[in-house]
Give the backbone structure.
Amino acid sequence: MENKEYGSIIGSRSAPYINSLAGSYVLLTRAYAVSHPSLPNYLALTSGSTHGLRSNCTTCYKNGRNIVDQLAAHHMGWKAYMQSMPRACFTGSSAGRGSQQYAKRHNPFMYYNDVRTNAARCHRVVPFTRFPGDLRRGLPRFAWITPNLCNDMHSCSVATGDAFLRAWIPRILPKLGPRGILILAFDEGFTHAGCCGVRSGGGHVAAVIAGPGAKQGVQLARSVNHYSILRLIERAWGFAALGHARARRTPSIIGWSR
């Protein structure tokens, strides 16, 4: 989700579903983005680094290990679902009309050279229209969803994004298996609040860990950021930590051990 500070979401009457999810599972009360604008945060979540970027550039492709490399090394399936993306492996900077747009800057996978230029990997970055069928048949071990510019709250209201999540998350949770988790995260807020050694961060953001494998009714007050979320995923699957995720301790917020 996009561009909202913690206080715009948690406790907001416009986000009843997110708040119900936060009350039922794990709410990270001190979660922070690492930078502005959007793209560096997406890269941080998937590679442990912003790669020095401070813009939403669309042709600034990067080398370096990322979560796709880790999944491939462990023979684990993955897929990224991009709402309003016109076709798999689409390399354009945007698509769609009005607020119902796909934005490349919210798709970190297309910035990694070893994804974009590898046909087998690139064709795992697909339109969200494929998600309902995959949900029925069984999701891959790692699934990423980026809503379009309206449903992610970038160009439309908090209530609109909350309704999108209310429509899909209850369908997803029962399909995750007994140890599956769903991570609901915002890329950045609108302040420069940060933590964890990042002096000027991307704002205080809402983040919730839900699903059968998550603890229930927990509010975590420890400061965490996007590198912490990546480390949580890596630790759960026994992956070596990437980039700045190496320096992040992960809290005990999932209800099982590997």
